[in-house]
Amino acid sequence: MRMPRLRIAPQLSLLIAGAVALAVLVVGGLSVLNLRSGFRDYLQARDDEQLMRLVALLEQRAASDPQFQWMRNDPEPMRALMDAFNGRGQRLQRPPPPPGPGLAPPPRPEDPPQAARGGLGSLGERLFIRDLQGQRLAGRPQPQDVHKTVRAIKVEGRELAYAELTAEPEPEGVDARFLQRQTRRLVWAALGTIAVAVLAAWWMAGRWSRPLLALQRASRDIARGRRTQALQPAGALEIAQLMEDVNTMTAELHRLEAARRTWIAQISHELRTPLSVLRGELEAIEDGARAPTPAVLSGLRDEVLQLNRLVDDLHTLSVADMGGLRCTLTDGDAHSELWRIANRFEGQAQQRRLTLLLPRREAAALPAGWDWGRIEQLLANLLSNSLRYTDAPGTVAVDWRSDGHLLTLTVDDSAPGVSPADLRELFEPLFRGDRARQRGSSHGSGLGLSIARSIAQAHQGTISAEASVRGGLRITVRLPLHPDDQATRSAA
Question: How far apart, in whole angstroms, are the C-alpha atoms of residue 472 and residue 446?
């Protein structure tokens, strides 16, 4: 059975809360184990320290009685030893000889009363002292399987007896209550931490999910073609940047939609003009108002050719936009080909009373591997644009230079110029600049510069426009002399 998908807020909440809960449980469990283990280690260290102190007292007494006769079969010396160990008695002294018959033992003011001394206590109950032969000297023998700490009683480096202290039993009384209280506090601390983590996780998940939900709504509006309001960047840095990217994408989509509508309107206008002329002329011929003379038929042919050029340009540009502008690269002389193409426009320049400036024809050969048909189309579009929009008398200068790897082609014309705002839109399809450069636009499709840009990009080159020092427009094309054929095919 497939589990239902949760929203991001519950998922993040469960993830963060689960991670925190796991960490708290692990740390809490380790803390409880460490508390108990540490408490046992503390008891063990305390027993070791007490046993060493007791052994030191025994060694002091054994210095005068190596055979430990003073404590054999008599619990009183052991009690006195424990009182001295606990700081309740005076310095250990050898007991006086027993009194004569019928006499009470003399009082010992240095010893506290029996009630005050008490028993051996916990340490005395776990202590066992034996000689080298294993015979009991004092204490109560303990089972063999109980953990013991053994210390030798030495005098001048010679072992005389052994003191054994069994391990502290399980905590009880005050010690047990201390451990229970600490464990209880750790449990409550863990539960409180988990509760705070759940609340913090829910708050954080909500803070992350709100901008994501806004992104979701915006993307749905974009998919449905609705105009959505700009998103306010919020949340984490990556989410805020994503929202800014969506805003940029939305603005670009609106711009493209407006451009598409403008395209349709302009294309219909460009097609309607020659079609209207053709329809009018043909209707006039049918009505007998005009005779189908060679001049009339020539005019009709010009309109058909203009319509054909417009359709061809639209097809070329649409193919380029779809990535299908294929280029067949062949070797040739860039200098001679460019000069031949540019020189073809000498007649048009003279008709418009313009001067066309070209480089010297007798220049060194410049080997290049291009699609020469596309290059001819590119340069022809640039020159047609300059000749059409340059005031007479004026100048159009064509030049090209190479550094061995890259060829830079420039087309400069004289006044009028192009406004800086129009320079950014100059290569857009069907773009019309300011009125100063629109004369004769009825003979152009408005697609020439867009096609030139597509051809330059297909050759892995670039094209740009700027104001010319001659007062008009300067277009610069940079093309590699030998573009990568494989990369060009991939781009196409």
Answer: 18
The architecture CATH gives domain 330-491? 2-Layer Sandwich (3.30)
Tokens coding 349 = 């320049």
Q: How far is CA 6 from CA 9, 10, 11, 17, 216, in A?
A: 8, 6, 6, 15, 15
Handedness of CA 187, 193, 195, 197 (dihedral sign): negative
Residue 202: predicted pLDDT: 77
Report yes or no: 290 and 281 within 8 Å, Cβ to Cβ. yes
Q: For the chain, which residues score pLDDT lower than 70?
A: 1-12, 73, 88-122, 124, 169-175, 317, 320-324, 430-446, 485-492
CB 306 within 8 A of CB 272: no
Q: Strand (E) positions, 371-482?
A: 394-402, 406-414, 462-467, 471-480
**What's the whole-model pTM score?**
0.50
Predicted confidence at residue 327, as pLDDT, reads 82
Report d(CA 325, CA 492) in Å as an integer.
Answer: 5
- Amino acid making up residue 286: E
Looking at residue 93, its amino acid is Q
pLDDT at 358: 93
- Which residue intervals of 322-429 are DSSP H helices? 334-343, 346-351, 372-389, 420-423
CB 491 within 8 A of CB 483: no
Domain 251-321: which CATH class? Answer: mainly alpha
Contacts of 475 (CB under 8 A, 6+ apart): 382, 385, 386, 410, 411, 449, 452, 463, 464, 465
Joined together, the tokens standing for residue 435 give: 């009125």
Residues of the chain with CATH 1.10.287.130: 251-321
pLDDT on residue 324: 59
Chain region(s) in the chain for CATH 3.30.565.10: 330-491
Of 121, 122, 126, which Cα lies nearest the Cα of 165? 126
* Phi/psi of residue 156, nearest 5 degrees: 55, 40
